[in-house]
Amino acid sequence: MTQASLDTVKMQAKALRQALQAQGMTVSHAQALELVARQHGARDWNTLHARLSQRNAPPELALGDRVTGHYLGQAFSGKIVALSGPAAHRRVEIALDRPIDTVRFDSFSNWRSRIRGTLREDGCSHSRTSDGTPHLTLEKAPS
Prior knowledge:
Mean pLDDT: 86
Distance between the termini: 24 Å
Low-confidence stretches: none
Order of helices and strands: HHHEEEEE
Radius of gyration: 21 Å
């Protein structure tokens, strides 16, 4: 089963509060949040909020992980040396195992040994090349 999003559980709390109010039972928004947290197996709202806020994209990535992917059309492998931000706007820096040439022209080169990007939840960058390909795609390297 997939984990609910923070927005989803907040909407569930609002719907619960409205349903209880329609039955003549008044609960505060905080009480509704606590009840929804328990429904999701958390001991309280703060615990559920922290659990849902820690989800990253891709969620299994962590500092120091080995990764593979493509940057400006070039395949790479490397290690995550910096990771920050929320899941939908995750900033990552990767130290590459071998430098890659990020220019596709024969007349000059731009070799990089580190790359940075900002990822969506699916592991692809928000930025795209003129043909619509993401600048950066990232996957956890197979063990």
